[in-house]
Amino acid sequence: MSVIASGYSVDGDIWHLDAAVNRDTGDLATSVAIELPDGSRPWGGGCAGPPVPPGRHIDAYSGAADFGPRTFIARVAAEVRALIVTLSDGTREDLQLHGDISELGAHIAVLVFPRHLEIHRLDVIGANGDILRPV
Prior knowledge:
Layout (H helix, E strand, L loop, with lengths): L1 E7 L5 E8 L6 E8 L9 E5 L8 E7 L5 E7 L3 E8 L4 E4 L5 H4 L2 E7 L5 E8 L4 E2 L3
Antiparallel strand pairs: 1-2, 2-3, 3-4, 5-6, 6-9, 7-8, 7-10, 10-11
């Protein structure tokens, strides 16, 4: 696996998004490793399988360890231009799409957010600006 993006959560957690393609099967493995400000590292989360299942725009993972923040990973098809997440406190997050789609088979977005919040809405925006059904 190789790190394709890194960043900080609003609470100061450091995260690293890793991705790797299985050249034999074409499957994509994605995971997020997190380090809290105190140096502790909660269990990371991720998923593996086809980059985006046939006929779908997005494949997503969401999870959390026993402590620390929640993690959301989205793998999106080429026709997706943007992902917008609205959290339970009304915060709107425009997620950055990472990775080379010709290498990975998908763009990948990540959000590391406080565990007391939930994702209330996910808008998947197509290349022409239309909202796509998240199928």
